[in-house]
Design brief:
This protein is α/β, with parallel strands linked by helices. Helix content is 44%, strand content 15%. The protein has a seven-stranded mixed sheet with strand order 1-7-6-2-5-3-4, with helices on both faces.
């Protein structure tokens, strides 16, 4: 492990320890509402980004409610998007089993989806309908998986349906990673075929990179397929406009 990776790993450990302390202080101060949970996750993500030294820049206005749909490159997306706005995530059920991060996701109000189960999809849809009533946005990665960034995959519309049915606003968000030496962002992208700890160590050892997040304007769509196709095209366009090294 390089000195850079070691220093960042120590900073990450400190940020996680501090987040636990903040959580217990929060519990002592009264009931843990969903809004308080989302704010705690935001504090945690900001602490991790600042400690590890990952810079991020936001373009556009982060929404305060409704559904946000974004492209998905890595678990770093969660840190950056949550830092930009307090929100709740819809994530694959496997994340719930990750050390610390799985527990933190559950505490923070993440809704977990078993992609192989129709019953799970129906239950998640019902939970999303309730969350969309709260004054904080719900965030979904409708590609259904993380990618190497070469293109934005077609958006699945099933989990967009709760928002269109409820007449909730939907906002597109695009994420891009910039590595200062010109290395393609694919180095920071994480697929299911790489162990989390292996990719995390590689990420901690990558000097000089930052994240760019762009938010579009919120819209209300008549149906889920229109919403999925329109926001997909919007995310693709915003990714193309986000600056490269």
């Amino acid at each position: 492990m390089s000195f850079l990776a070691f220093r960042r790993a120590v900073a990450l450990g400190f940020a996680l320890a501090l987040s636990i302390v903040r959580f217990w202080i929060l519990r002592l101060r009264g009931p843990l509402t969903m809004e308080k949970r989302a704010l705690w996750v935001q504090q945690t993500c900001l602490g991790i980004l600042n400690g590890v030294g990952i810079r991020y820049h936001v373009e556009g206005t982060p929404p305060t409610h409704g559904l946000v749909v974004a492209n998905h490159l890595s678990y770093i997306d969660i840190l950056v998007l949550s830092a930009a706005m307090p929100c709740f995530f819809v994530a694959k059920v496997e994340i719930g089993g990750w050390p610390f991060f799985g527990k933190a996701a559950r505490v923070g109000g993440t809704i977990f989806l078993d992609r192989s189960s129709l019953a799970s999809a129906n239950a998640v849809g019902e939970q999303m309908t309730e969350r969309l009533k709260l004054p904080m946005p719900l965030l979904l990665f409708p590609e259904g998986t993380s990618t190497d960034g070469s293109k934005v995959l077609r958006f699945h519309s099933r989990l967009i349906d709760p928002a269109t049915t409820a007449g909730a606003q939907i906002t597109a968000a695009a994420v891009r990673y910039i590595i200062e030496d010109g290395t393609p962002e694919a180095k920071l992208c994480w697929g299911d075929d790489t162990l989390f700890i292996t990719h995390l160590l590689m990420t901690l050892n990558t000097p000089g990179f930052s994240a760019k997040v762009s938010f579009g304007e919120p819209h209300v769509y008549p149906d889920r397929r229109t919403a999925a196709d329109t926001t997909h095209d919007e995310v693709t366009a915003m990714r193309a406009q986000l600056p490269l090294p």
